[in-house]
Amino acid sequence: xxADYVIVGAGSAGCCLANxxxxxxxxxxxxxxxxxxxxxxxxxxxAGYMKLLEHPTLTWGFKAEPDPGTNGRAINYPRGRVLxxxxxxxxxxxxxxxPEDFDxxxxxxxxxxxxxxxxxxxxxxENWAGTADxxxxxxxxxxxxxxxxxxxxxxxxxxxAKQLGCEYREDVNDLAEGHGDGVxxxxxxxxxxxxxxxxxxxLRPALKRPNLRVVTGALVHRVLFDGTRAVxxxxxRNGVTERIDAAGEVILSAGAIGSPHxxxxxxxGDPEHLERIGVGVHHALRGVGKNLQDxxxxxxxxxxxxxxxxxxQSRGLGLAAQVLRxxxxxxxxxTYAASLVAASxxxxxxxxxxxxxxxxxxxxxxPGVSRQLDTVPGMTCGMWQMRPLSHGYVEARxxxxxxxxxxxxxxxxxxxxxxxxxxxxxxxxxxFAAPALAKYIVAExxxxxxxxxxxxxxxxxxxxxxxxxxxxxxxxMGRDLLAVVxxxxxxxxxxxxxxxDASVMPAVTSTNTNAPTIMIAEKxxxxxxxxxxxxxxx
Length: 538
Known about the structure:
Blueprint: E1 2-8, H1 12-21, E2 29-32, H2 41-44, H3 99-107, H4 115-125, E3 126-128, E4 142-146, H5 152-163, E5 167-169, E6 182-185, E7 187-188, E8 190-191, E9 194-195, H6 198-206, E10 212-215, E11 219-226, E12 229-237, E13 240-252, H7 255-265, E14 268-269, H8 271-277, E15 283-284, E16 290-292, E17 296-304, H9 310-313, H10 316-329, E18 341-345, E19 356-361, E20 378-385, E21 392-395, E22 406-408, H11 415-433, H12 435-438, E23 441-446, H13 454-464, E24 466-467, E25 497-499, H14 514-537
Parallel strand pairs: 1-2, 1-13, 2-10, 3-4, 5-6, 13-25, 14-15
Antiparallel strand pairs: 4-7, 6-18, 8-9, 11-12, 12-13, 16-21, 17-20, 17-23, 17-24, 18-19, 19-20, 21-22
């Protein structure tokens, strides 16, 4: 089998690339996905994500290594293994990040990646449910929208944040540079009553084109090279090893875990690591798998009274009423994202812009690490440090693609991250104590009133928190010694090989990473097509 472009990974980036590259009817594209079709109905019902994050077939089943940052726990590390990738199992939050995130990328020498440069690609992706303006656009593949419902407790959370000095933002994606603390209603990747995964938004329309072939259930073993040029990939499906040749380019879009893992299995990476696991060094590139960054979430929850809670609405007669509401009019709790309200606040004096993201939900989880809602009425606010300074790694353990890599974000290995987490937890307690919310509170469940000192708070955070599923930066873009790709997303020192996904971020964006990942793919697709036109004209 041969194609012009072979794309590895049908997640947020891969589905976008498959769509954009097949717009040129002369380009033959093969998209390879380790998982299967997105047929499970829980994928498409927005609130179904609660049942998907540890699904035995729709995720990779990864765990991060035990580490002091998690008090020695091996936490679950969900990544999607299905058409749409993690966009098929995530909480559907559409928040782009601070303009300074992207200006920082450009300041590191990555030309064309400032906020002004990337905003057109955010807009190109979008089919906004509201009125098109300078921030949002209509006509793109990705449905984005405000949530329709504004529950009582969520409205109270907005008022409480305002009482703490947060500016109310009608649009959380319309931020001026140098902005201060703010609060607003989260936007979603949802069209009507259904999740707008990358598979639904980008891949489904492209499947009608004769120049696209999608291969599912295919585990990629390695990239194939002729000298320094990538010429195809080797993969196995149904126990049979096959290959696809690429006349144009091989594009890795397997995400911040998959893309560095495939490079390492292909002999591209840190020579010491490759030799240790028995992989021959094809091309030394020390940064492959280094620089893993992720956001770490910890929660404060309270028992409440006097207001509706998801805890009651999601069981018994309350759930039956919500199912009928969803079927009849397409709204209610089955359409909710992981959170409905977000606040961005500054807790560290040295930060120029907000450094903690706080997400509010009018529900609470039962004690423990499972995502089971509590049986008594409750509310929760989770927080993460927006710009963590801790860096971890992704490393192949063996030469076998079937063996999961070692994953370790090394949370809280930088002391600044500890200070930010403690500050974020204390800010949430201030939020709950503000008059607009305090009147509903019966008691704090988690961490509880006996947890007060900085050391106690940090212990609680490490003991109970976990990933927000924002793995990034393991094939980072740049010019330094750990950079893996250049600012056109080409792998340094190799030809016809790019990485286009969240792994190329030079630093993790301050908020949720799905919107920036799709932007990267939109911009990356434009670069691939531009370079192909230039090669033909030469």
